[in-house]
Amino acid sequence: VARTIDSNRAHLKETLERAVHTPGAALVEIYQNCPIFNDNAFDGLKHDPEGIISLRDGEPIVFGEDGERCVVRGPNGTMLVANTADVKPQDIVVHDVKLASPAQAFEISRLTDSGVLHQAPIGVFRDVERPAYDDAVRHQVSIPQDREDSLQEYITGKITWEV
After folding, report:
1. Of all helices (H) and strands (E), which one includes residue 5?
2. Per the count of CB atoms within 10 A, which of 11, 14, 99, 105 is most buried?
3. What are the CA-CA distances from residue 92 to residues 60, 79, 136, 148 (Å)?
4. Within the chain, how many helices (H) and strands (E) appear?
5. What is the SS3 string spanning 97-128?
6. How confident is the prediction along the chain (163 residues), in pLDDT tens digits per residue?
């Protein structure tokens, strides 16, 4: 699960290539201007890249021209944007795309401003490997070929495939 912006072509290309090479399903949200329904909705991010919260796996979430802003956990556990100078380095959230729980990725996604965007996380939110449906189906189809049982035993017998 990732987000990118059309005005950053290098990031867009990297994100889409990663999605294409992901086994199973991938979801990429692309911030792209539409002159009819949301004209200039992303201008805040395009003209002021300091609002882009760049997500890098395994690194603290720090952003701004000189890293003056960061993401920390607030008193109630939700994620907040803070001034880097005002927090301890160990309190800055480290991005981890491989967490089993989607909670952190969801919390990071909620850092997006509403209305005209001036702040939004961009990058891979989550990259968890799970069995892909088509691989599981191919495996089940190969089961009769791997076993000495005949196909007739599967059809008329008590041996069944699990779907």
Report:
1. strand 2-5
2. 105
3. 6, 10, 40, 57
4. 5, 7
5. CCCCCCHHHHHHHCCCCCCCCCCEEEEECCCC
6. 999 998 889 999 999 999 999 988 899 999 988 888 878 878 878 777 788 999 999 999 999 888 999 999 988 888 999 999 999 999 999 999 999 999 999 999 999 877 667 889 999 999 998 888 888 888 877 765 555 556 666 677 766 666 6
Distance CA 73, CA 108 (A): 10
C-alpha dist (Å) from residue 25 to 60, 105, 106, 160: 27, 17, 18, 28
Q: How far apart are CA 31 and CA 116, in angstroms?
A: 12
| pTM to 2 decimal places | 0.77
Provide the residue count of the chain: 163
C-alpha distance across the termini of the chain, in Å: 26
Q: Which residues contact 89 (CB under 8 A, 6 or more apart)?
A: 60
CA distances from 67 to 51, 52, 111, 112 (A): 11, 11, 17, 18
